[in-house]
Amino acid sequence: MTERIWIRDPIAILAEGAERGVVVEGGRIVEGVGRGAEPVHPVQKIFDASRHVVTPGLVNTHHHFFQTMTRAHPAAINKSLWPWIASIYPYWTKYVNAENFRLAARLSMTELLMSGCTCASDHHYLFPRGLEDAMDIEAEEAARIGLRMTLTRGALDLSGAEDSQALAPGGAIQDDDVILADCERIIGRYHDLSDGAMTRVALAPNAPFDVTKRLMRETAALAEKHDCRLHTHLVETKQEADFARDKHGMTAVDYLEDCGWLSNRTWLAHGIYFDDAEIAKLGRHGVGVCHCPTSNMVLASGMCRTKELEAAGVAVGLGVDGGASNDNSNLMEAVRHALMIGRLKYDAASVTHLDALRWGMAGSARCLGRDDIGAIAVGRQADMAFWSLDELRFSGAGDPIAALVLCGAHAADRVMVKGEWRVEDGAPVGVDVARLRHEHHQASRAFLEAL
């Protein structure tokens, strides 16, 4: 028999009817313990949560792990998206390899976990020669630290030499048949549709401006065949929205529809420059949008229309985005930034701390097509973040859950994934953080020495 563990008497818990905590068994939440109550069935262990605010684990729906090798890179800082990516692409294509990619993935996942994240999706689209097994590396590293993953197999098949609008150099692209064969391989090996699965697979051509229509259509067909998700960047900048109209003679959303992508399998990164008709259409078809507030501010890309998207029925999730356009992998920080930029766009009453938390939890889970995570409720997976309010930043805070966002929580004291402790006392279990930092930093030197 598995042990029943009572997470007892938290300061506060982001759940209904669980004021005295929850009972965990077999990796799931099996009972909520209400005010003044005791667990209905005997428990074998008690975890005293009286120092903690307990929330669902955060869910990261868009990232680029490999980019941690070029954080604050001198060639790319203080630029908007297209000049930024044009300046940094040659470094990625030439210097990202299997060894430093493994370190980048390990570092990114560790950062995410320490920020309260329990499930992540990494949109990996860079496959230079020697990095063909990138998805396998990610799967291995996620299993090693106990993080849930959607292995998001990206792709580039159009280079700047072939199309003036494309940004990828020739060394970054792959042949369509190679891409599709690898998609089939990864799906067959890692795509687990069972409740509580630790790995699933999504297919993710990078963006309509640097992949062909054939690849978009073929990946849509593969996703339908294997019941997996679809992901791509879309209208992160006004230039991209204009590109769709100029090149394809239609809006970006109509182009998605033309490619067979307009369905509830799809979630999109950024989605800043949709017009009202596009938003309504996305909502009708159940498409999700990953809001990346930190990256959008760093690159001055714009503000996602989160309120209009949600009102239309679009699932809104959160992502930290790339390690070189955000420069960190802290999802709790992204929650706070989503609140702040949302209030700047709308007003102080229209975007609350609960909205921002919902986007990073239940909304993100919806984007990934998961109804087993993203909330603390009976039957859901026991994925939770435990936040201490012992720091000076929280002194005087009246509402513990609001304080996590308003006072700037950035590191979880404990994190549980599938009922197992993966962070204890602020430290990731089984990870030598000092060694990881040293090895990753040493590997990153190659990207600077090339200047």
Describe the protein.
- With about 450 residues, this protein is an alpha/beta fold.
- The protein folds into 2 domains: about 110 residues, Urease, subunit C, domain 1; about 300 residues, TIM Barrel (Alpha-Beta Barrel), CATH 3.20.20.
- The chain is built from 14 helices and 20 strands.
- It has an 8-stranded parallel β-sheet with strand order 7-9-10-11-12-13-14-15.
- It is globular.
Q: Summary?
A:
This protein has 14 helices and 20 strands. With 451 residues, it is α/β, with parallel strands linked by helices. Pfam families: Amidohydro_1.
Q: Could you tell me how far the N terminus lies from the C terminus, measured between alpha carbons in angstroms?
A: 59 Å
CATH superfamily of the largest domain: Metal-dependent hydrolases
Regarding quaternary structure, how should these chains be classified? single chain
CATH topology of the largest domain, which one? TIM Barrel
The total strand number stands at: 20
**Helix content, binned percent:** 25-40%
Strand content: 15-25%
In the CATH hierarchy, the architecture of the largest domain is: Alpha-Beta Barrel
Strand order of the largest sheet: 7-9-10-11-12-13-14-15
Protein name: 8-oxoguanine deaminase
EC number: 3.5.4.32
InterPro entries: Amidohydro-rel (IPR006680), Metal-dep_hydrolase_composite (IPR011059), Metal_Hydrolase (IPR032466), MTA/SAH_deaminase (IPR050287)
Keywords: Hydrolase
